[in-house]
């Protein structure tokens, strides 16, 4: 599909990020025309969309155990809504982060937003430049805060489109920053201490380098769904674990696994 997208954009090279290319076009009209060309490719692919092997089994396992699920994708919302309504009508996903969210993967901001919306946070003391709790990848704090408004707008839009598939709450739509700290007199200290998303308890499952890089930078464990085209990513430093079917993740969740960073440091 990416080959078709690049061709639709005039044959841009593989080394050029598709979204960066579009955002870099000089006029709003050119950008919208480029986005529509990409959306046309996605619509055609959507018609032929098939569930990954093991998807139904994995979803049943997660749903029975009440494991929360979210989506972070560079696709626009229609293919996501199609996937959820056609193949996963009984499974709840939220938040759903799509192309309207900026910055997109490989930036970690989308994953950090998901963590924050689930109440997974750490406290960052800007007075000392340190956080309380697990740290996350380079650029994580800045990326999460920079994308705050796009996150709120996109989450709301996507919820309207896939309402039946989501369990969104007001907490899921709050921004990247938590309540201001209070001093001894009950007065706010401004934004010296913040709550930011902590993805160290999350697993990012994907099939692209953007997925692995975003997950690693966010501080999540990364799982590559390997195929013939992405097999080279199995040895990439941002990939913690490799599976060939989605239901292989069931055993991983039940038994646990050691991430690459931990294994290499022991």
UniProtKB/TrEMBL annotation:
Pfam family, one: Hydrolase_like
UniProt-annotated stretches for the region Disordered: 127-194
InterPro entries found in the cross-reference section: HAD-like_sf, HAD_sf
SUPFAM superfamilies per record: HAD-like (SSF56784)
Chain intervals with Gly residues compositional bias: 130-140
Highest taxon in the source lineage: Eukaryota
Comp. bias intervals (Basic and acidic residues): 150-160
PANTHER family xref list: HALOACID DEHALOGENASE-LIKE HYDROLASE (PTHR43885), SUPERFAMILY HYDROLASE, PUTATIVE (AFU_ORTHOLOGUE AFUA_4G13290)-RELATED (PTHR43885:SF1)
Protein known as: Uncharacterized protein
Species in which this protein is naturally found: Monosporascus ibericus
Taxonomic lineage from the root: Eukaryota, Fungi, Dikarya, Ascomycota, Pezizomycotina
């Amino acid at each position: 599909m990416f080959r078709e997208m690049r061709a639709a954009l005039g044959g841009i090279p593989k080394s050029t990020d598709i979204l960066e290319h579009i955002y870099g076009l000089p006029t709003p009209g050119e950008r919208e025309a480029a986005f529509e060309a990409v959306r046309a490719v996605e619509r055609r692919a959507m018609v032929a969309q098939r569930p990954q092997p093991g998807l139904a089994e994995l979803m049943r396992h997660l749903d029975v155990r009440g494991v929360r699920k979210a989506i972070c994708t560079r696709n626009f919302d229609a293919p996501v809504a199609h996937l959820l309504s056609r193949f996963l009508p009984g499974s709840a996903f939220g938040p759903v982060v799509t192309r309207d969210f900026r910055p997109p993967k490989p930036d970690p901001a989308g994953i950090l937003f998901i963590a924050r919306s689930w109440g997974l946070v750490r406290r960052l003391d800007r007075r000392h430049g340190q956080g309380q709790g697990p740290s996350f990848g380079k650029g994580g704090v800045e990326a999460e805060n920079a994308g705050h408004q796009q996150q709120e707008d996109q989450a709301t839009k996507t919820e309207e489109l896939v309402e039946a598939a989501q369990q969104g709450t007001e907490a899921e739509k709050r921004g990247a920053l938590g309540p201001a700290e209070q001093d001894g007199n009950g007065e706010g200290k401004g934004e010296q201490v913040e709550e930011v998303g902590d993805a160290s308890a999350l697993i990012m499952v994907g099939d692209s380098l953007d997925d692995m890089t975003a997950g690693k930078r966010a501080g999540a464990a990364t799982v590559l769904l390997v195929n013939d085209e992405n097999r080279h990513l199995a040895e990439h430093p941002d990939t913690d674990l490799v599976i060939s079917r989605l239901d292989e993740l069931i055993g991983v969740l039940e038994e646990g696994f050691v991430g690459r960073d931990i294994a290499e440091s022991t």
